[in-house]
Automatic annotation (TrEMBL):
Transmembrane segments: none annotated. Coiled coil: none annotated. It catalyses: a 2'-deoxyribonucleoside 5'-diphosphate + ATP = a 2'-deoxyribonucleoside 5'-triphosphate + ADP; a ribonucleoside 5'-diphosphate + ATP = a ribonucleoside 5'-triphosphate + ADP. This is Nucleoside diphosphate kinase. It is found in: Cytoplasm. It comes from Microbaculum marinum.
Amino acid sequence: MAIERTLSIIKPDATARNITGKIIDKLESAGLRVIAQKRARWSKADAEAFYAVHKDRPFFGDLVAFMTSGPIVLQVLEGEGAVAKNREVMGATNPADAADGTIRKEFAENIERNSVHGSDSAENARGEIAQCFSEEEIVG
Ligand code: UDP
């Protein structure tokens, strides 16, 4: 399988509970390597741009409010099949449906406050990484 890169975000519900280390441990234990990382606080425009694909969904306004409610940790993860591997470690969007041992099963509060974001395809990963990081910030 090819070495890939994917974008990961530790969301405000997780930074508020001071569990970023526990989440990073799960990612690293699955074989994913953190090759870029920064803490940020998104503006409304940042969150709206990042989640533009969801702009017509009923949860869009609440999602933007949540993602701007506190600090986030943005990461580029690298590894074999990193996009699918990260999605597997994250678990289902709704923690009620997430498999045992996944980040969302262990840490998510609900379907919105679900602790992590991960790109859902290699193509989207490329776009999301370019949106969030400069080339100089990525140290593979
Ligand atoms: N979300 C929500 N309500 C929903 C579906 C999604 O609040 O009914 C939020 C949730 O934070 C989710 C994000 O919107 O992680 C993006 O949704 P998506 O369907 O892309 O899920 P993901 O790829 O994050 O699992």
